[in-house]
Every structure is written in structure tokens, then in C-alpha cells.
TrEMBL record:
The chain crosses the membrane at residues 12-41, 61-91, 103-122, 153-174, 195-220, 251-273. It is found in: Cell membrane. Signal peptide: none annotated. This is ABC transporter permease. It is a multi-pass membrane protein. It comes from Mesorhizobium denitrificans.
């Protein structure tokens, strides 16, 4: 029996999205469902998970309040710091640089990703440690400067590690900007600052929100940077999860924290998409 065109189209669509759908279901949906089940259970006497149905773990989230406070404070601050540095650089690359040199300069932005994040973070441990910048400051008479194992060190590591992820979506958004709009604004007598706030910034907002959402979401689950540059004194939620699952073996509480983190991540994503839609219409579909 010959298939109808509609049936053929359905089969082709299923063949194209089927493998990805199965992959996402097995490696994302099922693990999250398991975590959700663990979150309403109890800690077994020897550690791990014991079947139960209780919301006591969610009521006990305050036991890891410091991790939540550090994450929900430093992650947005880090994202904003990345934005303040990334936007001028992305604007320069997209608008001011000769197109013949643009590809080379954009490639330099991506170069840090060619090196392991672990190696790059270890280099900052040396620079911020006793033999690094504090030693140089001591030679010029500035003593007792402590940089490592502080929130500032973690923030510096965040900006250094995630800055390229903020630059690239903003650059893509600015590169798509219709230059005729800028020329028309200038012809009508608008000053450059007025053109920027009324044309450039609103039209590049999808890239801005994409970068902010991307960096913030990744920072909410960050583990390596606070572990190495915070020295165990600046805990993020990721550090709390490692402690609860691998050391304390309190799987239900760790699962409750993980579920809460997922809810926060979804909220950040929805808010960023809402803002992009509010100010730039459907243009954010190209980037989000």
C-alpha cells in the first residue's frame, strides 16, 4: 500500500527528530524524574535514599542557605560584569572593525576555549596566590593583600571564564543590524548616543538577553571556579550538591536542592525570553 504524502512527511519528521527525542528522554527526562522521586524521600541510615513521601527536604533547604546566597548573588553580578565588558567589545567587532579582519579578531575571542577550563583556572590560582599578584604588590610596599579564596577571586574567575559566551551572541545580534537604520538616524539629525539607545541597543537586545541567560544559567550550576578560587570558603550550589551526594550521602536533600535549581534556571530562561520578546518582538527566535 502506497503511503500518502502526509504519512511520508510524518515518517520523515519522526526519523529526523526521533533519535534526538529518545536521547533527551533517556538522558534528561528520566534522570530528572529520578531526582524528583529522591527529593520527596528520606536519607537512609547508612546514607543514600530511603523510599518515603515527604517534603521535609524542601523545608530544610535553609541548611544550605550560604550556597544559595553565594550563587544567587555572584552569578547575576558575574553575568552583569561580563555584559559590561562584552558589549563594547562586541560592538567594536561588529560595527567598527574592517570585515577583512573581523573573522581573525572573533577567532581570538574563541581561542581560550581551546584550553581546558581546569588549566585556565589553575593559572588564576597561581596569579592570585601568595607567589602571584600579592607578591608583586608586596615588592612595591603594599603588604597583606589577600586575593585567593575570596568572593572577588571567584568573580574574577567567572568573568574570565564566561566572557566569550557573552561576547558571541551579542556580536551575532549586532552583526545582523541593518546599517541603513543607523544612517537614517544620522541623516535625521540624531546624535550618536541617541541612535545607540533608540536603535542599536533595542535591536541588539535579543543577543544581550541570550548572553545573560546563557552565562547566568551556567553559573547557577558552576562548581570548578568556586572550588578552586574560593578554596572551600565561597560555596556555590554545585559545591553543595557534590558534598551532599558524594560526601554526606544525603541524596534526598541534594535532590531537593537540584530540583530547586532547575526551577530557578527555568525561571531565568523564561524571564530573559519575556524581556527579549517585550523589547524586540520575534527577533529573539534567531538567537534563543
Amino acid at each position: 500500500m502506497e503511503l500518502t504524502p502526509k504519512a511520508k512527511k510524518t515518517m520523515v519528521t519522526a526519523a529526523l527528530i526521533g533519535p534526538a527525542a529518545i536521547w533527551l528522554f533517556v538522558f534528561m527526562v528520566l534522570p530528572f524524574f529520578a531526582i524528583l522521586v529522591f527529593s520527596v524521600g528520606e536519607r537512609a541510615p547508612a546514607g543514600g535514599y530511603q523510599p518515603a513521601f515527604t517534603f521535609d527536604q524542601f523545608a530544610n533547604l535553609g541548611a544550605r542557605a550560604a550556597a544559595f546566597v553565594n550563587t544567587l548573588t555572584l552569578a547575576p553580578i558575574g553575568a552583569i560584569a561580563c555584559l559590561l565588558i562584552a558589549y563594547p567589545l562586541a560592538y567594536y567587532l561588529a560595527v567598527k572593525v574592517d570585515p577583512r579582519r573581523r573573522l581573525l579578531l572573533v577567532s581570538l575571542v574563541v581561542v581560550p576555549f581551546w584550553t581546558s577550563m581546569l588549566v585556565r583556572t589553575y593559572s588564576w590560582m597561581y596569579l592570585l596566590g601568595a607567589r602571584g599578584i600579592p607578591h608583586v604588590l608586596e615588592l612595591i610596599g603594599i603588604e597583606n593583600v589577600r586575593l585567593i579564596n575570596t568572593p572577588g577571586a571567584v568573580l574574577l574567575g567567572i568573568v574570565y571564564g564566561y566572557l566569550p559566551l557573552m561576547i558571541l551572541p551579542i556580536f551575532v545580534s549586532l552583526e545582523k543590524l541593518d546599517r541603513r537604520l543607523l544612517e537614517a538616524s544620522a541623516d535625521l539629525g540624531a546624535k550618536p548616543i541617541s541612535t545607540f539607545f533608540n536603535i542599536t541597543l533595542p535591536l541588539s537586545l535579543p543577543g544581550v538577553m541570550t548572553g545573560v541567560a546563557l552565562v547566568t544559567i551556567l553559573l547557577l550550576g558552576e562548581y570548578l571556579i568556586p572550588q578552586l578560587l574560593g578554596g572551600g570558603k565561597v560555596f556555590f550550589i554545585g559545591n553543595a550538591l557534590v558534598d551532599l551526594f558524594l560526601q554526606s550521602r544525603n541524596w534526598p536533600l541534594g535532590s531537593a536542592i537540584a530540583v530547586t535549581l532547575v526551577i530557578v534556571v527555568v525561571a531565568v530562561l523564561l524571564i530573559s525570553m519575556r524581556i527579549a520578546w517585550r523589547f524586540a518582538g520575534t527577533r529573539q527566535i534567531d538567537l534563543v
